[in-house]
Specification:
Radius of gyration: 22 Å
Number of domains: 2
CATH class of the largest domain: Alpha Beta
CATH architecture of the largest domain: 3-Layer(aba) Sandwich
Length: 421
């Protein structure tokens, strides 16, 4: 069952009306002048743990390719456009091998990779080979660097930490207790979340960090239980909440936590890797724990304009899957790259690096305003949706329960559609 949707305040009419399609007429003369063909590459996880995300991203890329070909035909430019899609297998080293394969074919602009780990594995080679990367999925702050060849259309993890702590605080919790996978992304997100929660007037406990290769979680769940017991012993009025930052290991962790009354009676929150997580929904024990604790996780939010809904429906029609928002960002990435290449009349990395920020500043895609900051990362117009598990009969499904919304020139706001009981 597809997740139900939370109604949300409408975006200002000016944003809904100014979409990428309206910008195309500005570039008609460029497209008409470009007689040769343009070929992009794409690094997509079609197999491995991120395969579902890869399938919807692949569909988005093919839709963008079709739409650009339609635009070129309508403009009478005589140009051609294609995307060479390579499967990364959700593996950083395979992503690097596939990027080298694309480089050997002369590709100089690549959409992807989808994850931070894959992006970290390929960024140095890309820069050395003169390849521009337009990633729709990477969001780790540690990858934000000036004057590189990486541009990213997902909001930074610093924004995710901001959204997450806003909900935790809004729901009356006074102490944030993190439990997290000790990799670069997990460490970074927890550091930002702790700092942000303290800024909001809350307390951030030390929490429990575990090794990424760990498979037995009973010991770390015991540590978490003891820390929470100590927090309440020292301050009975405290209202602690657990924040889990990790991946599919959430299932065995939930099973262990369900055996401890103290942990099962607290509110739990997650990161973007556990939003709409099928592993939780498909396991009855972990699903029951997620519902009992109203486990809420943020994910890069769905766009509010009609063009987003149209792309979402087109992707779902092709895949029979609920599209990840980053798949819509992949569609935007193709158009942004095409407009930059067309305007620059070149696939040279230096020319693309100059034109991508210029075009992004003036482009509203299906995911909103594509403006970039000094690191080449998304600067404006980002939202985070929060998802919690629900049950209907014997079926578990994800429901949107809140949204943290940010739009240019407007205050950030948290909209709660399903308050914690």
């Amino acid at each position: 069952m597809h997740p139900t949707r939370l109604s949300r305040p409408a975006r200002p009419a000016r944003i809904a009306a100014v979409v990428l399609a309206a910008l195309l007429s500005v570039f008609t003369t460029h497209a008409a002048a470009q007689k040769g063909g343009v070929t992009f590459g794409a690094l997509v996880p079609l197999t491995g743990p991120m395969a579902d995300k890869g399938r919807t991203a692949e569909a988005a890329l093919k839709l963008a390719e079709t739409d650009i070909l339609g635009y070129l035909a309508a403009s009478g430019s005589g140009g051609s456009f294609s995307i060479l899609i390579e499967d990364t297998g959700s593996d950083p080293q395979k992503a690097l091998a596939k990027l080298k394969k694309l480089a050997d074919k002369g590709v100089r602009l690549v959409i992807g990779p989808a994850s931070d780990a894959e992006t970290a594995a390929v960024e140095d080679f890309a820069a050395g080979a003169g390849i521009v990367l337009l990633s729709p999925g990477s969001a780790a702050q540690y990858l934000a660097k000036k004057d590189d060849t990486l541009f990213r259309l997902s909001p930074s993890n610093t924004y995710q930490a901001e959204a997450l702590t806003a909900l935790i605080k809004q729901e009356g919790n006074t102490v944030m207790v993190p439990l997290w996978r000790g990799d670069t992304v997990g460490d970074e997100l927890v550091v930002h979340a702790k700092a942000r929660f303290r800024q909001l007037g809350g307390e951030a406990a030390a929490g429990v960090r575990y090794d990424p290769d760990r498979t037995d979680f009973a010991g770390i769940v015991d540590e978490l239980d003891k820390e929470l017991a100590q927090i309440l012993a020292e301050k009975p009025s405290a209202k602690p909440a657990v924040v889990f930052v990790g991946g599919n290991e959430v299932v065995p962790i939930f099973k262990d936590a369900a055996k401890r009354r103290g942990l099962a009676g607290l509110p739990w929150y997650g990161g973007d890797a556990t939003a709409l997580n099928d592993a939780i929904a498909k396991d009855p024990e972990s699903a029951a724990f997620a519902m009992r604790t109203r486990f809420a996780s943020p994910r890069y939010g769905e766009g509010g304009a009609n063009v987003y809904t149209q792309i979402e429906r087109r992707i779902a029609k092709e895949t029979d899957l609920f599209p990840d928002t980053q798949s819509a960002a992949a569609y935007d990435a193709v158009w942004l790259g095409f407009l930059a290449a067309d305007s620059a009349q070149s696939m040279d990395a230096g020319a693309l690096k100059r034109f991508i920020p210029l075009l992004a500043e003036r482009t509203y895609g299906v995911t909103g305003w594509l403006a970039l900051n000094e690191y080449g990362d998304r600067r404006e117009d980002w939202d985070f949706d929060f998802w919690a598990l629900r049950q209907e009969g014997d079926t578990f499904f994800w429901e949107k329960i809140a949204r943290y919304q940010f739009e240019p020139g407007m205050p950030k706001e948290l909209y709660i559609g399903s308050p914690r009981k």
